[in-house]
Write a structure and sequence with these properties.
Dna Ligase, domain 1, D-amino Acid Aminotransferase, Chain A, domain 1, 3 domains, eight-stranded antiparallel beta sheet, 15 helices, binds adenosine-5'-diphosphate, biotin carboxylase activity, nucleotide-binding
Length: 461
């Protein structure tokens, strides 16, 4: 029987090109090496001195410093893969990781894209089709239609009334916390719709919008899944990523505190069911808002996430290795009953930015001291003498701890932060240290607005 394109997307390879940079490029390289795979690192001109270039089997500069001409340059990446004899491409997170056209181009070039099928990426990349697929699979969604908002003003008004104010207008193709607008009451509806539509057209190339209930004090809870190409899928527990600034996660933890197993269990199982229904392969994350004891799906990330380590610490599963093995066509080597999450884990994102203004801080790291000890993990590519470039995301390290209880994990993170010294550039470490002294955070179950409110109070003090 001829293979369908979806079935042909897994297979053998012995060399992986890592189409990313920074800490995740190193994390993936290590996972590949542990699996006996050769690695090809790529870089832009700004990253020529990247330490993971020296440890890769091949290191190729693919273009100028601006991401559009290097890490987002599909042709250059495919050419590098061909030159280096790579059989697969790992996209990491960000850049081209959720670009269905890139996944398609990788497969058309005869290579394996380490991720889900092109059609899964496309379905989940459009928030309306994602919502529709999730509703069909019985995953709880935010109240609101699973169809695009029409142009007709009367229908828009009726939809908002049916949902009940406040509502939120969102771009179907939105991402990165952009392309959404809260509408508190009816007289602001049409202006908000018009503005969001224009923004969506400009930023995401599609004016398609949808409307849903705006939840006023939710937490951000997500579920990690891993699936193979043979109809097996498991969920690896949950994370709480409510500590956000401008919709950007700052601290993540696993498990989400204060959520009883009988509440989360059906949601995890619904996510697994959804994966089986859409023929999902590899790793993915279902993101939910959680309010008053109920879960509401908001989107699925069809890639490895920055915060995957907290789940690795609690579940003991190497998520990157599992992802690569799924792309090789291996049968998942664990069943749901093998998944037992133990203890508590926190991750702090250490960013090169001013701890007060949050403006990015580029320059040379003149001194670096990293913490060590039981239950401490640091995922970073930087070293003393490393030059932090102004061209990319400001994430320079992830500090991860694991301990038997949440309270012990908090203590361990305080200790780890105290032992972290970065000089020569500004970082958010002072801000993270202060946050880990905060009483409400220590208590747990704070909502997605908490961090912004805490910052406002600190500034006012
Ligand atoms: P993006 O793809 O841009 O990250 P999401 O749909 O994941 O967009 O939403 C990003 C953030 O916006 C959420 O974490 C939450 O803070 C807020 N948000 C999104 N939808 C809603 C909603 N219906 N009610 C309240 N807040 C929301």
């Amino acid at each position: 029987m001829p293979e369908t394109p979806e079935q042909s997307a897994t297979g053998r390879f012995d060399t992986v090109l890592i189409a990313n940079r920074g800490e995740i490029a190193l994390r993936i390289q290590r996972a590949c090496r542990e699996l006996g795979l050769k690695t090809v690192a790529i870089c832009s001109e700004a990253d020529r001195q990247a330490p993971y270039g020296k440890t890769a089997d091949r290191f190729l500069c693919i273009g100028p410093s601006t991401a559009a001409k290097s890490y987002l340059n599909q042709d250059a990446i495919l050419l590098a893969a061909r030159l280096a004899g790579a059989g697969a491409i790992h996209p990491g997170y960000g850049f081209l990781s959720e670009n269905a056209a890139f996944a398609d181009a990788v497969e058309k070039a005869g290579l394996i894209f380490i991720g889900p099928t092109t059609s899964s990426i496309a379905t989940m990349g459009d928030k309306i089709s994602a919502k529709r697929a999730m509703m069909a699979a019985g995953v709880p969604c935010v109240p609101g239609p699973d169809t695009a908002l029409p142009d007709d003003p009367a229908t828009i008004e009726r939809t908002a009334l049916e949902i009940g104010y406040p509502v939120i207008i969102k771009a179907a193709g939105g991402g990165g916390g952009r392309g959404m607008r809260v509408v508190p009451k009816a007289d602001l509806l049409h202006e908000a719709t018009a503005l969001t539509r224009e923004e969506a057209r400009k930023a995401f190339g599609s004016p398609s919008l949808y409307m849903e209930k705006f939840l006023e004090h939710p937490r951000h809870i997500e579920i990690q899944v891993i699936c193979d190409d043979h109809g097996n899928a498991v969920w690896l527990g949950h994370r709480d990523c409510s500590m956000q600034r401008r919709h950007q996660k700052v601290v993540e933890e696993a498990p989400a505190p204060g959520i009883a197993p009988n509440i989360i269990q059906p949601v995890g199982l619904a996510c697994v069911e959804a994966c089986l229904q859409i023929g999902y392969r590899g790793v993915g994350t279902f993101e939910f808002l959680y309010e008053d004891g109920a879960f509401y799906f908001i989107e699925m990330n069809t890639r490895l996430q920055v915060e995957h380590p907290v789940t690795e610490m609690t579940s003991g599963v190497d998520i990157v290795q599992a992802q690569i093995k799924a792309a090789q066509g291996h049968v998942l080597d664990l069943t749901q009953s093998d998944v037992t999450c133990k203890g508590h884990s926190f991750e702090c994102r250490i960013n090169a930015e001013d701890p007060e203004s949050f403006l990015p801080s580029a320059g040379v790291v003149t001194h670096l001291a990293l913490p060590a000890g039981p239950g401490i993990r640091v995922d970073t590519h930087i070293h003393a003498g490393y030059k932090v470039s102004p061209y990319y995301d400001s994430l320079i390290a992830k500090l991860i701890v694991h301990a038997p209880t949440r309270a012990e994990a908090m203590t361990r993170m305080r200790e780890a932060l105290a032992g972290t010294e970065v000089e020569g550039i500004s970082t958010n470490i002072p801000f993270l240290r202060a946050l880990f002294e905060d009483g409400a955070f220590a208590h747990g179950e704070t909502d997605i607005h908490y961090l912004e409110q805490w910052l406002k109070l600190r500034r006012a003090a």
